[in-house]
Fold this sequence. Notes:
By secondary structure, the protein is an alpha/beta fold.
Amino acid sequence: MKRSNVAIFVPHRGCPKQCSFCNQKEITGCDTVVTKEDVSAAAERAFAGGCDTAQSEIAFFGGSFTGIEPEYMTSLLSAAYGYVSKGLFKGIRISTRPDYISQDILDTLKRFGVTSIELGAQSMSDKVLSLNNRGHSAQDVIDASEMIKSNGFSLGLQMMTGLYGSSDDIDILTARKLIDLAPDTVRVYPTIVLKNTPLEGLYLSGEYMPQTLDGAVNLCSHLIKLFNDAEIKIIRLGLHDSESLKSDYVAGPYHPAFRELCESRIFLNKIREYIFSDEQNKKFSRYRIEVNPRNISRVVGQKRKNIDELKKDGIEIKLAPNSSMPLSELTITPIR
């Protein structure tokens, strides 16, 4: 039985201002007011769909959940808690802004069965946060994270790469600072230019240049390693694919299988590092690579990109599936 959180989007409710990159109707395909009846309907659909709801959360995303009107927030939470209190779902997940966390808010969330809180940190550079009209500071992220953890909630942090005014070095520093906060999970979103956003104006005027797809893949493959080494789970990498997002896309490193591109790049880098970091290995042009069968497509790359890149290097590989291989590892042997 599959495990799948029930995601309910509450677009723009509670946001004090529009961030440079944000148009949540385009991101979520949703611009209607969510009601408590909608919450119940979503939970019931999960039951009907055969999900293992007892191992899933009801998740409120979009906007700034703890910034919406208190009565409205508690009505949505109450509808979800009706299922959690009966053991039909394991808990409730919400996402919000770092500056919309207080002890009173945390007490309310705990009373209604919230188990996980995600903060939209986006960057740990105050300059980048200001340029993108976020309205909070890096210190707000630190303070809110510490409060959330000390109150027993699971902490999730969200960051964006390629924001206006940012750079690869700043994004890597952001990742390292998020790791210092020891979240349970992270989400990483490359910045996409959408219609009807301030960022679109900056892009059209030439003031903002988004990451290329290849540049975002290179950077995020590095971030994956940082978070994996810190044993922090990446639960999302790249925006969720949707027709609404595609129709309102203007520019930036969007790809429906962005995570797979990054994971594929990691394997390409491992192969190249093995071959080209050793003078003995450089003498050979053919290699046998043992890999877990689940990762063959990632080693090959989308549309055989890794195979083609290695051929440009004068390298041919022969894949040998080995189900006992750990998913993150390869065994590379020269063919003499």
